[in-house]
Amino acid sequence: MENFEGKVVVVNGGTSGIGAETVKQFAARGARVHFTGRREEKGREVEKEADGYAHFHQVDNTDPDQISSFFEKLLKEESQIDVLFNNSGVLSIGSGPLARVKEEDWHTLIATNQTSVFLYMKHTLQAMQKQKSGAIINNAAILGNDKVNPMLPAYSGTKAAIVAMTKSTALRFARQGIRVNCISPGPTKTALSIKAYGSEEALEKSSKESPRGYYAHPEEIANTVRFLASDAASYIIGTELVVDGGYSLK
Ligand SMILES: NC(=O)c1ccc[n+]([C@@H]2O[C@H](COP(=O)([O-])OP(=O)(O)OC[C@H]3O[C@@H](n4cnc5c(N)ncnc54)[C@H](OP(=O)(O)O)[C@@H]3O)[C@@H](O)[C@H]2O)c1
Questions:
Q1: Structure confidence at residue 1 (pLDDT)
Q2: In ligand 1, which atom is closest to the CA atom of 38?
Q3: How far is the CA of 120 from the centre of ligand 1 (A)?
Q4: Which atom of ligand 1 approaches the CA of 20 most closely?
Q5: What is the DSSP string of the chain?
Q6: In the CATH hierarchy, which fold is given to the domain comprising 8-244?
Q7: Which ligand 1 atom lies nearest to the CA of residue 108?
Q8: Per-domain residue ranges of the chain
Q9: What's the pTM value of the predicted model, to 2 decimals?
Q10: Catalytic site residue 247?
Q11: Nearest CA to ligand 1 atom 44
């Protein structure tokens, strides 16, 4: 089991699903984990469930000032940031054929899925540049690239942008000891996907047709984030790592 003792990890969107599982995995391996989200009750639950240091910060990513205040407070408490997992995302807002997507939903989706990734990277890179080390992992999706969906033009757009931002930033910081990568999960059993499928039963039924016969557990996605954050991934830069159990091959 890798050791993240003494490392400071930030998880953007850690109150449920993939983010919550990632918080718990890093905390259980000795990291000091700071995670964000809007729902205080869920945040406190994750803090309690974590077997290690996990600190919830209430932040609404649609408000850049809240993101700035979070980093200001964080960097008074911690002298470094070793790992950033940029995970916050919504899917159902702004879904439907492009001509019917409301402008206000478009802006909410861009702010949550894309601008927050930009802002968390920007703040984190200031710390990482001073340290000359760090790993950033952004959460994209196969829906952004490998398996676009005609009913999710806005969501797919934000996820494709994350892959491009990842590659560009990775190239810029490759010689500064900072590795930037992204993951593209396929369907994963979380509140987000259950809502998208309409019900847990509908998701389970659909998952039976996938190559693995089930959709990913959030733990399996968190395992990949941990790998990319670890020294075992020291030569991996600017990669989009697809974690979909073969879903996009079909
Ligand atoms: N599940 C899948 O099938 C799948 C597949 C590919 C990629 N992904 C990506 O994985 C990421 C995590 O999704 P999930 O499936 O784990 O769903 P989830 O359980 O709904 O988690 C979404 C996370 O994003 C946070 N978030 C959403 N809006 C926010 C806002 N305005 N400010 C701060 N935090 C916000 C949520 O926190 P609060 O609600 O507390 O604010 C929550 O912690 C997303 O980026 C999603 O696109 C998921």
A1: 60
A2: 41
A3: 15
A4: 43
A5: ----TT-EEEEES-SSHHHHHHHHHHHHTT-EEEEEES-HHHHHHHHHH-SSEEEEEE--TT-HHHHHHHHHHHHHH-S---EEEE----SSTT-S-GGG--HHHHHHHIIIIIIHHHHHHHHHHHHHHHHT-EEEEEE--GGGTTS--TT-HHHHHHHHHHHHHHHHHHHHHGGGTEEEEEEEE--B-SHHHHHHHSSHHHHHHHHTTSTTSSPBPHHHHHHHHHHHHSGGGTT--S-EEEESTTGGG-
A6: Rossmann fold (3.40.50)
A7: 31
A8: 8-244
A9: 0.98
A10: no
A11: 89
Q: Tell me: the pLDDT tens digits for 100-151? A: 999 999 999 999 999 999 999 999 999 999 999 999 999 999 999 878 889 9
Pocket residues: Cβ below 6 A from ligand 1 = 13-19, 36-39, 42, 59-62, 87-91, 112, 139, 141, 185, 187-188, 190-193
Alpha carbon 200 to chain centroid distance?
A: 22
Query: Which residue CA neighbors atom 17 of ligand 1 most closely?
Result: 192
Question: Would strands 53-58 and 83-86 be described as parallel, antiparallel, or unpaired?
Answer: unpaired
How far, in Å, CA of 8 to CA of 109, rounded? 28
91 Cα–ligand 1 center, Å: 8
pLDDT per position as a tens digit, 146-180:
788 899 999 999 999 999 999 999 999 999 999 99
Active-site option among 120, 155, 197, 215? 155
List Cβ neighbours of 87 (8 Å cut-off, separation of 6 or more): 11, 12, 13, 14, 18, 19, 22, 139
